Amino acid sequence: MDYEHKAKAVADCLMSYKRDESGWKVCKKSNDVVVSWRPSSEFPGNVYKGDGVVSGSPEKVWECLKPVPNGLRVKWDNNVKRFELLEQITEDVSICRTVTPSAAMGIIAPRDFVDVILVKQYEDGTISSNATNVSHPGCPPQSGYVRGFNHPCGCICVPISGEPNKTQVFSFFQTDLGGFLPRSVVDSFFPSSMAEFYSNLAKAVKSLKDL
């Protein structure tokens, strides 16, 4: 499988979501984020978009978000229990396994996801993580976990002109959680978990010592 090509296509896909304002319906607003959704063209579910400004430089925000084993994200993101590197393809492209805890008062059982992830930097200082599901011989489905499938998803950290200590963070989730979950559970889970994601990210960035 051409992992690198697949990962680069995700980066283009997320940038197109960011640029395309049409069809998004707001489903949750908090002080930290506006969460919207629209039907996914990738699978029979929704794509969710988070858009919020985090107090902290892009470097600090990225330090909390970057997809690396033993990184900060497993410490602050309640939806990431473990993050494992399966294979480093190039300097910027890796195959990783993410383990998530049970959620929604136990209705959503623990899951694992295997994704190719591209870290991409842009000339204007924007940095992004871009992921989508792949199969990998080193990680077949395992007992105790429902295998879920991420369709193009990730985070984009955008510098704000004239505001070096603020960062606009876009996040995109479109996840097939697998298993036989009622659609209502899925539809209520993502908006609330994304609002929590931004709230916890803001706290994590605030607690970082100056880089």
Task: Describe the protein's architecture and organization.
By secondary structure, the chain is an alpha+beta fold. It has helices at 3-19, 58-65, 73-76, 183-207; strands at residues 25-29, 34-39, 46-55, 82-88, 93-100, 111-121, 127-133, 146-147, 149-150, 153-160, 163-173, 175-176. Strands 1, 2, 3, 4, 5, 6, 7, 8, 10 and 11 form a ten-stranded mixed beta sheet that branches. It has a two-stranded antiparallel ribbon with strand order 9-12. A hairpin with a 4-residue loop joins strand 4 and strand 5. Helix 2 packs across helix 4 (183-207). The termini are far apart.
The major beta sheet can be summarized as: 10 strands, mixed
Rg, alpha carbons = 16 Å
Helix content: 25-40%
Provide the residue-averaged pLDDT: 95
Number of DSSP strands?
12
Please work out how many helical segments DSSP would assign. Answer: 4
**Secondary-structure element pattern, one letter each:** HEEEHHEEEEEEEEEH
Q: What portion of residues belong to β-strands?
A: 35-45%
- Unreliable parts: none
Based on secondary structure, the structural category is: alpha+beta
* Shape designation: globular
Distance between the termini: 38 Å
